[in-house]
Amino acid sequence: MGTLRSILKHPDDFYPLLKLKIAARNAEKQIPPELHWAFCYTMLHKVSRSFALVIQQLGTDLRNAVCIFYLVLRALDTVEDDTSIATDVKVPILIAFHRHIYDRDWHFSCGTKEYKVLMDQIHHVSTAFLELGKNYQEAIEDITKRMGAGMAKFICKEVETIDDYDEYCHYVAGLVGLGLSKLFHASGSEDLASDSLSNSMGLFLQKTNIIRDYLEDINEIPKSRMFWPREIWSKYVNKLEDLKYEENSVKAVQCLNDMVTNALMHAEDSLIYMAALRDSSIFRFCAIPQIMAIGTLALCYNNIEVFRGVVKMRRGLTAKVIDRTKTMADVYGAFFDFASVLESKVDKNDPNATKTLSRLVAIQKSCRESGLLSKRKSFIVKNENGYGSFMIVMLVIMVSIIFAYLSANHHNN
């Protein structure tokens, strides 16, 4: 019912959602027959359906390398995330993880649900990893080693300053950006991007996730996970968990807006990185998550619901991003639109209003100076009710036809 209600409210979502559903089914049909590769791609769909869809569009060799890179890092992340593992057990595993991926006999049971399955059967990932080209293996090993060491460092260290925050995000996400740039280069499809631009791509995504996931992280059992830097939140409350209490709502939103403003500093680098990509499938692979990030920041900004529950882009809007992101014009259009939405939400009395508006103006300026805004399709932030009644009628007709078809088949059987 929730999906139908959303479609009736946003009828323009229907066609992209339908295409996304079909694409997801087609992707599942393309899972390789070999046991280890079947496990890897099946697991990829379970831990990240939208990411899996974008990966499917890459060329075969690069697709396999990115799939394994993602699963290796998800496994590493599962060890880091499991707060029930004692520090003296966790730290050596994180540090040695880059060696474990070469060992088909190694596994470590931790995590929950599909992540536990991944860890229990990680030998399938190791088997697939060992079939990759040497250049892909070396890139994955290098990033896994550096990330594991960084995660181990922050197991024993709080995120106090903004520099700490940037360093932590570099280890858990900036290095992903560096690794992907290495894989793109190893495939022969792209020039090797600079470390600073690659790092910004990862930091933009990671900071967005940290902002959005505040409540989930702070309520983690048996121990809270705290990634918001003390240098920011201590300006508003005495303890990070105080942000979730209703009596601190005004300060909580001000702190949230401060965090969003910090994340926006990476947007321009992300645009520069994407503009340099040549391969269309790699471009879409990179661009879709970046658009989702700025869209999520626009949704979170000035929104007390971040401290009350789950805040994320509706599925229909996600489907539109996946469906309509084809060129850099679309990216500039999306960034410009979402920056405009953010701008409209800035309260002039917010302590960081001037800094926030300055960042948004810089993003909008980059988009305008591209000269491509006029070439974009009608994109994400539009009045979607202009032909809403027509779409609703069409939807009702289509549902009726499908229902009649299914009913006829049922009676015939």
Automatic annotation (TrEMBL):
<keyword id="KW-0812">Transmembrane</keyword>
<keyword id="KW-1133">Transmembrane helix</keyword>
<protein>
    <recommendedName>
        <fullName>Squalene synthase</fullName>
        <ecNumber>2.5.1.21</ecNumber>
    </recommendedName>
</protein>
<dbReference type="InterPro" id="IPR044844">
    <property type="entry name" value="Trans_IPPS_euk-type"/>
</dbReference>
<feature type="transmembrane region" description="Helical">
    <location>
        <begin position="386"/>
        <end position="408"/>
    </location>
</feature>
<dbReference type="InterPro" id="IPR019845">
    <property type="entry name" value="Squalene/phytoene_synthase_CS"/>
</dbReference>
<keyword id="KW-0808">Transferase</keyword>
<comment type="pathway">
    <text>Terpene metabolism; lanosterol biosynthesis; lanosterol from farnesyl diphosphate: step 1/3.</text>
</comment>
<dbReference type="GO" id="GO:0008610">
    <property type="term" value="P:lipid biosynthetic process"/>
</dbReference>
<dbReference type="GO" id="GO:0051996">
    <property type="term" value="F:squalene synthase [NAD(P)H] activity"/>
</dbReference>
<comment type="similarity">
    <text>Belongs to the phytoene/squalene synthase family.</text>
</comment>
<dbReference type="Pfam" id="PF00494">
    <property type="entry name" value="SQS_PSY"/>
</dbReference>
<dbReference type="InterPro" id="IPR002060">
    <property type="entry name" value="Squ/phyt_synthse"/>
</dbReference>
<dbReference type="GO" id="GO:0005789">
    <property type="term" value="C:endoplasmic reticulum membrane"/>
</dbReference>
<comment type="function">
    <text>Catalyzes the condensation of 2 farnesyl pyrophosphate (FPP) moieties to form squalene.</text>
</comment>
<dbReference type="GO" id="GO:0045338">
    <property type="term" value="P:farnesyl diphosphate metabolic process"/>
</dbReference>
<dbReference type="InterPro" id="IPR033904">
    <property type="entry name" value="Trans_IPPS_HH"/>
</dbReference>
<feature type="transmembrane region" description="Helical">
    <location>
        <begin position="282"/>
        <end position="304"/>
    </location>
</feature>
<keyword id="KW-0472">Membrane</keyword>
<dbReference type="InterPro" id="IPR008949">
    <property type="entry name" value="Isoprenoid_synthase_dom_sf"/>
</dbReference>
<dbReference type="InterPro" id="IPR006449">
    <property type="entry name" value="Squal_synth-like"/>
</dbReference>
<dbReference type="GO" id="GO:0055056">
    <property type="term" value="F:D-glucose transmembrane transporter activity"/>
</dbReference>
